[in-house]
Automatic annotation (TrEMBL):
Residues 1-195 form the Aminoacyl-transfer RNA synthetases class-II family profile domain. Its EC number is 6.1.1.20. Keywords: Aminoacyl-tRNA synthetase, ATP-binding, Cytoplasm, Ligase, Magnesium, Metal-binding, Nucleotide-binding, Protein biosynthesis. The keyword Aminoacyl-tRNA synthetase applies. It holds the Pfam family tRNA-synt_2d. GO terms for biological process: phenylalanyl-tRNA aminoacylation. It is an enzyme of class 6 (ligase). It is found in: Cytoplasm. GO terms for cellular component: cytoplasm. This is phenylalanine--tRNA ligase. One of its GO terms (molecular function) is metal ion binding. It catalyses: tRNA(Phe) + L-phenylalanine + ATP = L-phenylalanyl-tRNA(Phe) + AMP + diphosphate + H(+).
Amino acid sequence: MYHYNFEALNIPDNHPAKDEQDTFYINKNIVLRTQTSSVQARVMEKTQPPIRIISPGRVFRSDQVDATHSPSFHQVEGLAIDKNINFSDLKGTLAEFAKELFGPETKTKFRPHHFPFTEPSAEMDVSCFKCGGKGCRFCKGEGWIEILGCGMVHPHVLEMCGIDPKEYQGFAFGVGLERIALLKYEIDDMRLLYENDDRFLNQF
């Protein structure tokens, strides 16, 4: 629904994500979800803290199909709401996530960003798992690869879901599964994931 995809996530009326060029509208009240964050809003409305969830699912955006974009792809998001949760908890959780995914030597860094539903917000980079951060073709010589968005749940989002932001805090993060697969397995074209070609799929 429109409400859970936008309004419940503190996304303002003039935000570009609401444009028809970015979102598939069924009618003015129903859209195909553009992010799995809509699951988080529903859970927070129906569940009192403490809350710990992972919400995987398919999302839809009005993108042209090419090697790195698809109008339908998969996301997984995490949400934790409790007393005394802070940004250090978020950083520690995601550092462990990165090590489990890309190897124990993986380093992380966080860059300030803006998302309407989190404040403060950040994007997380991981040290290149091909060159160890020295710089290579894979990381475009930077030594780092952008991997996900994250932040502390905005107090207004908590209030709209009936949770007192003076008593509870939380963090959230989201990552595209296809992006992880492309990076981890050095796949050049996202479309290969959907073609159901056994010659490709049996490599993994």
